[in-house]
Amino acid sequence: MADVRTKQIREPLIHITKRDDVSFAKSTVIHLIGIAVALLISSLLIVAITGQNPLEIYKAMYEGVIGTPIANSGINKKYMESIHQAAILLCISLAVTPAFKMKFWNIGAEGQVLMGCLTSAYCMLEFGGKVDNSVLLVIMFAASVVVGAVWAIIPSICKAFWNTNETLFTLMMNYVAMTLVSYFIMVKDKSGRSDLGIINERTGYGYLPNLFDRNYIFNILIITVVTVLMFVYLKYSKQGYEISVVGESENTARYIGINVKKVIIRTVAISGAICGLVGFMIVAGDKHSIKSSIVDGQGFTAIMVSWMAKFNPILMIPISALIVFLSVGSKYATSAFRIDNSIGDILTSIVIFSIIACEFFTRYKVNFRKPKGRGKA
Amino acid sequence: MKKLISMLLAVAMLFCFAGCGAADTSSDGDNAKVLSIDEVELTVASTITAVAKEDLKVGFIFLHDANSTYDKNFMDAATAACTKLGLTEDQILMKTGIPEGNECYTTAKELVNAGCQVIFADSFGHEPHMIQAAKEYPNVQFCHATGTRGKTEGVGNYHTAFAEIYKGRYLAGVAAGMKLNEMIAAGKFTAEEAKMGYVGAFPYAEVISGYTSFYLGAKSVCPSVTMEVQYTQSWFDIEKENTAAKALIANGCKLISQHADSSGAPSACEAAGVPNVAYNVDTSNIGPNTAIISSKISWEPYMTMMIKAMLDGTSIPSDYCATLEEGAVQLTALNESVAAEGTQAAIDAAKDKLINGEIKVFDTANFTVGGKELTTYLADVVDAGDYKADTEAVADGRFIESEKRSAPYFDVIIDGITVPAK
């Protein structure tokens, strides 16, 4: 009798256990499998919806990102643009990271970058031609960084002293920033068209120069430096350690003598400052223009990049590259094959979804019941 | 903190180096002399190497998609011109929904990458971005509708175009005046009460030139007419256009016309039973009992010329004003059930006179400004980003609209037209 009962308490077919720690190699393999599965699902979907050869579509995506030399000049500038786009996304991701690591849910990166853009644009209009271009660039840089930081400090002070909800607060600050930009354009535009066009189009005041005869190099250099600094700051500096402690537990932090308010404000200010810097780079090094949609949602995409990289600045490089690859590539491929834009969005989301799903497999181990335990029945 | 400061300083130094290289761009300041169109060196269009028909790819950049009457007008013309010249579908690349910003530049580059030898953009705000792309790709031709800088920018592969739409508006105005006369004769209101309403998008030259020519057309047949203008500050806003039309009707306007792209004003007119003269599209489906006629630009002649130039290896004019004669300015079919008797004959007669030069729309004998005849007027023809008037536009007893530059520059408020106070 007893024998029968023990046999009935059977091991389930699948059970899940938490992994203690997963090696880097294993995690990489899991993620690569995830991406492969995503591409497979996407391929099936492409065939089902459009009837196109998925390999051709992937090839077009690659061409859309890397570019091809233009017929009558042999120049290819496309890949540089893609790299720059990924770099900008990377930099915003770096910016939001310290705050997120501290569990300060700053979703106001969009607005902070926008304020940086606005400040740079204002300086270009206001001081262009009145001071030397190098001085103008320094003013633009400094002012954008400061304004970006201030835009982030406002909610952080309220959080530190009155424990307000930073998610809502930073989100609302985005809309304030957008409205300010619209107002600025309305005031500054003399044509009556509510469009500033390209600022200082004829004079080039406040434009970052080309280095080595190429666009964007300046921005890419700055972002490289920021990436390294952020990695070192988070991993090896005392302040980086304080951020992790406050993130894990404010009480512990207080107990070991960390001034939590100060750490919160300081960290969020750094986040905001880097966002402001991105704003400067967007205006001075790329678009030379301003409008309320200039950041184009990257402030929100960056949050995803930061999370997917588990706040590791180095990991953010491939992830932002992947996201830009997907969005730029799918946009190009869908237009080359004259299929609906939404297909591109679907592909992108399948890949991102599967990467996030990989998290499950890196944290938990799926165990299957071993066949030998089953017996003959 | 120290680290942060040193970081900032390091970056600041970087810029100083950068600035040294870039400082020489700052030669001409704000105080440069304003040059009139007669003084500036005009752009010489670059010659084009002929492209074999099967190799030609034409790119189009549209502000909205086919839901906007403005863009649909361009899209239809593009398709018609390309098909007539025997281009296949994969030789025509259309990008819709491209905002007036950096996206235009990016899209233009994308089209270049896709192999287009000629690229056309349809909205005013695309201009600086098209110029930017044109400078970057000198071997590709960039054509821009409604732009102001083709002649003066000095970029040989950048071209602008418009049409003498003020003549079309004038003819539509004739139809409006005939309708007013009919209503006066029927005793609906007195000649002094003949007031028209006009819903305009923005208070700048393109709109002002449009409503003034419309008004002058109406005045040519109904001398006592006046007109009230309201602006919506948007090119496409159904609600605002509708409200503005209703307000004008409430103010005593007996007939409405508009220069904005939605169905807002025509539908307000239909609801109130007030006659309407439209723009860009035939609105008789929206207002079967009130729509009289519409004036429109047909871009097909220009696009045909543009593509032919690519095939033949000739050149595209730096700035081109398409004419009434060549069919670039058109009127939609007259809605006989609404229009006054004899309207078609009056329009045809006026059209012939416009073509043979007997009638000049902006003849200074036909209107006054502040009670006086206009004898001199400086218009902002050279678009140097300064919004400063630079060119004398009154000559031979008329305002010479669209001759110095294709895009309209008549921006005088004449007597008989009331506009909102600033």
Description:
The complex is a heterodimer of chains A (377) and B (422). With 377 residues, chain A is an all-alpha fold. Chain A has a domain at 79-317. Chain A contains 14 helices and two strands; from the N terminus they run αβαααααααααααααβ. In chain A, helix 5 runs antiparallel to helix 6 (133-162) and helix 5 (109-127) packs parallel to helix 7. Chain A is globular. Chain B has a domain at 53-164 and 300-322: Response regulator (Rossmann fold), CATH 3.40.50. Chain B is 35% helix and 16% strand. In chain B, strand 6, helix 6 (205-221) and strand 7 form a beta-alpha-beta unit. In chain B, 53% of the residues are buried.
Overall CATH class of the domain at 53-164 and 300-322 in chain B:
Alpha Beta
Computed over alpha carbons, the radius of gyration of chain B is 24 Å
Helix and strand content put the structural class of chain B at: alpha/beta
Helix content of chain B: 25-40%
Count every helix of chain B, treating DSSP H or I runs of 4 or more residues as helices.
10
Q: What is the level-2 CATH architecture name of the domain at 53-164 and 300-322 in chain B?
A: 3-Layer(aba) Sandwich
Report strand order across the widest sheet of chain A: 1-2
| Class from helix and strand fractions of chain A | mainly alpha
What's the helix-strand series of chain B? HEHEHEHEEHEHEHEHEEHEEHEEEEE
How do the strands line up in the largest sheet of chain B?
12-10-9-8-6-7-17
Instruction: Give the name of the CATH superfamily of the domain at 53-164 and 300-322 in chain B.
Output: Response regulator
Number of strands of chain B: 17
Number of helical regions of chain A: 14
